[in-house]
């Protein structure tokens, strides 16, 4: 599956959907970003049930600012609208595969309960 270019216009729709979404924050001028690109593409081809998106931080500065992206590449994993992972740095293929497997194995019922509990504490 090809990666999806994410913009301020389609970000919420794509990332807010059910399932797992990986987001690669990158820029054309960034050497580590270009080096990570083929690894990311290979993972997208192996995991067709997952959406792989890319945010060009130069073209989408507002999105990068919203997520506090200070270093690229930064990989973010979102599942069912909840950010499970966000960390800068290019990953080797086996580490990316492991991370994807961990995201698949998260008990989202428990995560949603914890999110709801945290929101209730903030309001109360």
From TrEMBL:
Disulfide bonds, paired cysteine numbers: 30-33
InterPro entries attached to this UniProt entry = Thioredoxin, Thioredoxin-like_sf, Thioredoxin_CS, Thioredoxin_domain
Q: Where is this site: Deprotonates C-terminal active site Cys?
A: 24
Entry coiled-coil feature ranges? none
- UniProt entry keywords in alphabetical sequence: Disulfide bond, Electron transport, Redox-active center, Transport
Entry annotation: catalytic residues: 30, 33
Q: Which GO terms describe its cellular component?
A: cytosol
Q: Does the keyword Ion transport apply?
A: no
Instruction: List, alphabetically, the PROSITE patterns matched.
Output: THIOREDOXIN_1, THIOREDOXIN_2
Which ranges carry the Thioredoxin domain? Answer: 1-105
Is Ligase among this UniProt entry's keywords? no
The residues annotated as site (Contributes to redox potential value) are 31-32
Q: Which SUPFAM superfamilies match?
A: Thioredoxin-like
UniProt GO molecular function: protein-disulfide reductase activity
Q: Which family does it belong to?
A: Belongs to the thioredoxin family.
- Return the protein name: Thioredoxin
The record lists the organism as Lentzea jiangxiensis
């Amino acid at each position: 599956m090809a990666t999806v270019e994410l913009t301020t216009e389609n970000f919420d729709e794509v990332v807010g959907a059910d399932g797992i979404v990986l987001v690669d924050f990158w820029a054309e001028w960034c050497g580590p970003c270009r080096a990570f690109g083929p690894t990311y593409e290979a993972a997208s081809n192996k995991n067709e049930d997952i959406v792989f998106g890319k945010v060009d931080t130069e073209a989408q500065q507002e999105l990068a600012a919203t997520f506090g992206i200070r270093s690229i590449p930064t990989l973010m994993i979102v599942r069912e609208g909840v950010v499970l992972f966000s960390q800068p740095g290019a990953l080797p293929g086996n580490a990316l595969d492991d991370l994807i497997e961990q995201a698949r194995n998260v008990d989202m019922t428990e995560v949603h309960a914890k999110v709801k509990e945290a929101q209730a504490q903030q309001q109360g």
